[in-house]
Amino acid sequence: MIDFTSVLLIIAFALVAFLLGKFLTERKISRSRQDAVERSRYSLMGRVWEQVAPFTPEFKYHPADLRFIGAPVDYIVFEGMNEKDIKRVIFLEVKSGKSRLNEQQLRLKEAIKGKKVEWEEFRI
Questions:
Q1: pLDDT, tens digit (0-9, with 9 covering 90-100), for 44-63
Q2: pTM more than 0.90
Q3: Hey, is 56 helix, strand or coil?
Q4: CA–CA separation, 108 vs 102, rounded Å?
Q5: Distance (Å, rounded) from C-alpha 109 to C-alpha 115?
Q6: What span, in angstroms and rounded, lies between the C-alpha atoms of 88 and 81?
Q7: Cα-Cα-Cα-Cα dihedral of 12, 90, 1, 86, to 10°?
Q8: How are beta strands 66-68 and 88-92 bridged, if at all?
Q9: d(CA 75, CA 90)
Q10: Which pLDDT tens digit goes with each residue over 72-81?
C-alpha cells in the first residue's frame, strides 16, 4: 500500500506538471487553441485523480476492495472483499473540479438506482 508521503509526492508532481503546462500553454499556443488544451489538461488531471483518489486520507474504501474498470465508471468496489466478507457492491466514479457525469454514466446511475441490476452465470 502507498503511504501518505507517496500520495503527497504524487499530488505535488501532478500540480507542478499542471502549472508548468499552464505556463507553457499561455506562452506558446494561440488563444483559439487554449480552450482545447485546457480541456485536455483537465481530462489528464482527472485521470491522475482517478488513480490517486483511493490513497487519499478521506477515501472511505479499502484500496484492496477496488477493481478499476475505467469506463463507464472508474471502479467497482467490493466492500469487505479485503476481509473475505463482501457486504456491498458499489459503482464508483471519481470526479474532480466541476466535471459532471456523462450521458452513459447518468444512464448507469439510473439503472442502479432503479434496481435494474442482476446476477448471471455463464457456463461453458
A1: 676 777 778 888 888 999 99
A2: no
A3: coil
A4: 10
A5: 10
A6: 9
A7: 170
A8: unpaired
A9: 8
A10: 999 999 999 9
